[in-house]
Design a protein that fits this description.
The structure is a single chain. By secondary structure, this protein is α+β, with helices and mostly antiparallel strands. About 20% of the residues lie in helices and about 30% in strands. It contains two helices and two strands. It has helices at about 1-5, 60-69, and strands spanning about 15-20, 45-55. Strands 1-2 form a two-stranded antiparallel ribbon. The model has no long low-confidence stretch (mean pLDDT about 85).
Length: about 70
């Protein structure tokens, strides 16, 4: 069982992260600039990320620990 967990350390790890925020009040600039229009940002903001991590090199530590087990 422990050897199986050690060999899984070589597999890629995938994380899906979701975040939603709501700003009750937004700051705004009261400066008027010529030829520039400023859009007021939305109060709701959403973010989704997909992270993939892959072990590339660990000096043979995983294989050595598997042999010890």
């Amino acid at each position: 069982m422990e050897i199986e967990a050690l060999t899984k350390a070589k597999l890629p790890k995938i994380d899906l992260n979701l975040q939603a925020t709501y700003q009750s009040d937004l700051t705004s600039l009261l400066i008027s600039l010529p030829n520039i229009t400023v859009n007021r940002p939305n109060k709701e903001q959403y973010r989704a990320t997909l992270d993939v991590n892959q072990l590339i090199y660990n000096g043979g530590l995983t294989d050595a620990n598997a042999k010890i087990e």
